[in-house]
């Protein structure tokens, strides 16, 4: 009989000395249900590696990492350890901050991807769900009646005495922030909506800049908080849910119709040929779509020289099992392609590319269409520094 405390007895605790992991040392173990070389085991290890790599960047307190995980053998005497276990009822969950002894981290289908596991680890490290902030009503509205019963405790609002926001602003894009339709009884209606019309909710890909700052503050990674890592400064950030996006259509002249014509179009809903049923951001928003070759999206302004991580999701829709359609990345129109994605799937496929330029540059995202198999892109981000080496 295992302890099930992730929604019935979730404790209200802040990230402070009493419930941080001492010295930032976090041992972990797998239950017998998890094969460490299988899908779950490798996903958990990838999530841990990404958290360690990013949080420990620019550490200024001593020369040792401020946050360190290790796989602890059963024979090792440790006072507390993360215990990764397959959950029940399709629920993912864990307790806030270090628990004595076996600290369960329950995983199931809703968190089967690396970012879902990362969310659970952030909670276990002591962070709370961002939408539980004491000031959350100024930013979002929670529709409790549409939240599945087993998840309702995860939508509770904390008192100021129970949650330290560390002086940081509300973060709509935190990995610990639920999205609009997440955990819904009726998937046609939202569980949470933004009170700010131009703000999307949550993300499914990575820790936000604020998530990283919280961990660096909580675990004493820096002496001077002005040196907190800005790893995820978005030079380009386009989820296509709002008008303020740095990517624009490269408009070409249509000589047949004697007019200028956009090559990419905003689309809502399903892709053809049994593709995704909605956008990558939250399943209900918009994405960019084209059925034309040599269609281009480009950054409107130049990006300074340096090393960047280019991250996007794409989908190639096809009637069959393969296609020669693909998405391409260039630094400007007609320049040499430095990356492309051609994986055919019925789901959104991530593409992460580290790219370095010695002079200012523009990002161009283009299409090669074969056999009328259309292409879509969503959630395009260009961030400072190289992509995590996962």
TrEMBL record:
Domain spans labelled Peptidase M12A: 12-222
Record text on cofactor binding: Binds 1 zinc ion per subunit.
Pfam families, per the entry: Astacin
GO biological process entries: proteolysis
Keywords, in A-Z order: Disulfide bond, Hydrolase, Metal-binding, Metalloprotease, Protease, Zinc
Molecular function via GO: metalloendopeptidase activity; zinc ion binding
Any one Gene Ontology cellular component term annotated for this protein: membrane
EC number of the protein: 3.4.24.-
PROSITE patterns to which the protein is assigned, alphabetical: ASTACIN, MAM_2
Name of this chain's protein: Metalloendopeptidase
Lineage: Eukaryota, Metazoa, Spiralia, Lophotrochozoa, Mollusca
